[in-house]
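Many introductory courses stop at the sequence. We go one step further.
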Amino acid sequence: MKFLNRLAVLGLTGALVAACSSIDLDATKMMSLSGDNFQKALFKEYVDLARSEDEQADSRSAVYYNTRAKMAAAGKDTGPQDLKDRKIPAGAIADLTAARKKLTDALAAGAGKTAPDKAARAQAMFDCWMEQQEENDQPKDIAACRSAFEEAMKGLGGAKTVKKPMPGKEFIIYFDFNKATLNEAATAVAYQVMAESISGYKSIMLTGHADTAGDKNYNRKLSEKRVNAVKNAFTEIGLDPAKTIVQFFGEDAPAEKTADGVKNEKNRRVTIVLMQ
């Protein structure tokens, strides 16, 4: 997005998007709709998603949503996307699996007939959530798609909001400013995690973060270095690297919200969840 913002300042965004566009949305919009009300609503939702992704120069996602829109226009049953079709981070699989089941149960119970607009919105936003979760680099976009899905599900047969599964025990390692090395306190936490793991564990989720001091891209790379430093430390003390899952958000998911350019020790961290 920063790249596109810079181009906007230079007045080049329109030209670039036009050059990179991988779909003909105008042709898709002109298609005759032969499906029922649910499929017609799906068509609109997928067209909107395709347009949004095309404007962001995400050609892969734009093509996917454009294809889904064409299928809906033809009256074909697309169904919510299957998890196996995307590379979903392990830590998000339980939530998405539960969400998909709630959606498919609602559709099987006739939600597409009784509440076509809500049902179409729920399916499109589930696919949006899946897409953003696979990319796993924009927490706000993941949260927005998920929130829209959950809001739509409220009107489908009394379906409840999807809840996160109960995680294992959580630990936090903090870092010195502009550092990605473990200090004495951080090393002590690492050994505490090892002690807790003796009873057995399925996986360890590591999530890297940074404060807002400095360049955003630099902070993202710094959070990656921090999470890898913790993973390496765990490997050295005997934890199985094959069971370690990593993700990093830079300054995008702070523990304490601050203005840009603010040093904050609570935000310079790697969170550790030991899943047992």
